[in-house]
Automatic annotation (TrEMBL):
This is Metallophosphoesterase. It comes from the Bacteria. Keywords: Signal. The keyword Signal applies. InterPro entries: Calcineurin-like_PHP, Metallo-depent_PP-like.
Amino acid sequence: MRFALSRITLTMLLCCLTAHARADEPLTFIVTSDSHYEAVEKVERNDRNLVTIERMNQIPSAEWPAKLGGGPIGEPRGVLALGDLIDDGDKVGETEIQWQHFVDQFGLDGTDGKLKYPVFEGFGNHDGPPAPFIKQKRSVQAEVKRRNAVRLEKKLITRVSENGLHYSWDWNGVHFVQTNLYPADRQNSAVRYSLPWHDPQLALTFVKEDLASQVGDSGRPVIIVAHCGFDTNWWVAEDWVNFYRAVEPYNVIAFFHGHTGTGVRQWKPDPASKPLDVVNTGQTEKGFFLVELNETKMRLAYHVKRDATVIDAPEWEWRYPLEKTFTRSPAATAEKEAAR
C-alpha cells in the first residue's frame, strides 16, 4: 500500500510539474483569415491555402526575425481562422464542396486534416446566413455550432454561447474570445445591407457575460477575435464604441480580425482613451500571423509569401512586426505604484 501511495504521489507531482512548466513556457499560436475556399472558379486558391498550411506545420523549425529578437519558434497551440472560410456560403452545387475543402485542409483537432494543430474558426460574411435562411443543404454556421460541441467535448474550449456560435478558452492564463462576424448583438438599424447574412447574433452579449464570469477583476490578459475590424461599413462606428466600452475594464492586449487586408494599427474611440492594438490578419493563401506571449511581452509578425502564386517552394519573409509589453494584473500594478 505504501508503495502504491508513493507511486500515486509521484505521478501527481510529475503532473503538477509538467503543468507548471507549460504555464511558464511562451505561448505560441497562429492567426489567419479569409481562406475563401473555392469550388468552380479560382480553385487555384485552394492549392495556395494548402501551401500556407504546410508552412504552418513547419514553422517550429524556423526562427523569429532578428528585428523581434530572433530565437526559436515554439510549437503553436492552435490556429485561429477568422472568417470567410469559404467563398460562397449559400450557393447550390458549390457551398458543400467549398466547405469540404476547408475541413480536409484545416481539420478540427490537429489529427483529422492537413493542419497539425487544432483550429478555432469563426464565420464571416461570405460564409452564409443562419441555418433557417439557407437555400441549399450545407450551413457553415450550423457546422460551426457542431464543431464547437466537439471542441467542448475534447476540452479545447471552455465556454460556448447559448446559440452555440461564440466561444472562449484559456491558454497559459490568457483568455481568448471568438466572436465570429463582429462583436455586436445585431446589425445596426442604420445599415441596410444583406441581413440576415450580417447578423452578429448576440456576440457582444457573450463577450460581456464571458469576460465578467471568466476574467472579472483578475487582470488576466484577454485576446478577442472577429472577422471584421474597425474599418467596416456595416459594423459601424457607433457599434465600435459600444464594444470598446464593454471591454475597456479588462486587460485586452490585442484584437485580431480579417476581412479587409493586412496590417497592424491602433484604434480608440477618442483621444483620451487607451488604444487597442489591432491586427488585420490577411488572407490564408498569402500567409499568416505568428504570435508569441510570455509573462509580460507579446511579439508577432506576418509570415508571408513573396509571391503568393508560387506553389512549389515559395520564398517566405516577415512583415508588420509588433512587440509590446503588458501586465498580467493592471489592478495590482496600480496599487503598487500608488504605494510608492
